[in-house]
Task: structure prediction
Amino acid sequence: MYVGDAQDRRGHNSSGKIDLRSDTVTRPPPGMLAAMAGAELGDDVFGDDPTVHKLEERMADLFGKEAALFLPSGTQSNLCAMLAQCGRGEEILVGRPYHVYSAEAHGTSVLGGIALEPLAVADDQAIEPEKVSAAVKPDDPHLPVTRLLSLENTVSGKAVPLDRQEAAAAAARRHGLAVHLDAARGFNAAAALGIDVKTLARCADSVSACLSKGLGTPAGTVLCGPRDLIGRARRYRKMLGGGMRQVGLLAAAGLYALDHHAPRIAEDHARAAQLRAGLSKLPGLRVDMAPNQTNMALVTIDGPDPEMVHAALSEAGLICARQGAFMRLVVHRDMDDADIDRVLAAFEGALSTA
Ligand SMILES: *Cc1c(COP(=O)(O)O)cnc(C)c1O
Result:
């Protein structure tokens, strides 16, 4: 197994390739593995794991909520949050490109009998407050009962400005809706917006934050919210098969990441900005240069054959995801400045030969 070095950020996988598919691909560094190996453990389904308790308390405090729950994944965390706040025949308003709508197999509908109503988002990925108000259903037996607004930050690597997020939440409140925030990359959002995660989450009842993306743990997401909501979410976690036993092993990785990785998350943003700037100079490529971006470069191959470009990039040692001509390149903590140069050189070569 390849294990990244705490000092050496070059976390190439064992084949020496640079993996740009996601920030979930990072390997735990030795310091994290040592923290995991030394963790005090218990059976968390019995509520006995002191390291899980420590992580949950720390995250609740960081996000300014009463309580927290450690879950295996962001998808399960969002699902438990929504099941805990909505019932059968009710409805959730959510941005169409948001993960809850576009990438969670409509688990709320399949497993909870809860409808998802997708709303268009603005260029900055926020939902306009007017869109929220217009989508709330009147009290009419023909219609579902609108119960919750599900927000997201970051969206496609873009930090939604706080005032825009809060305006959508305020519109939801005026109609008596609850608010959930999918902050899978909330630490990225907060760093980019120059605020703490407590401020980011203050407009939401429940907030879900992943430890396995920019923070670099092997797995785990934490859901924060009021004590009664978290209690209901705990029952759904067990129901969905997410009760884990000596999971302080993973909670210890989370605590280590909060101490050592969270404070450095903006380094990924600086490298991603370097990458976008470099790529934007290359012919045959359109680069999204929107402000408020974090750790991604969103590029569209414009001219050369995308399949040939992709093959040439693979040949040059890059692992990239591609949908047609579009590529999302994700910078993470297992990449350093030299890797950015390597990626730029690979693109330059691939675009000129394809
Ligand atoms: C990754 C992600 C999730 C889900 O996380 P998993 O741990 O992969 O289930 C949820 N929301 C957003 C915005 C994400 O980026």
In short: The first helix runs from residue 30 to 37. Residues 73-75, 78, 99, 152, 182, 184-185, 210, 221 surround pyridoxal-5'-phosphate (CB under 6 Å). Residues 1-8 have pLDDT under 50 and may be disordered. DSSP finds 14 helices and 13 strands in the chain.
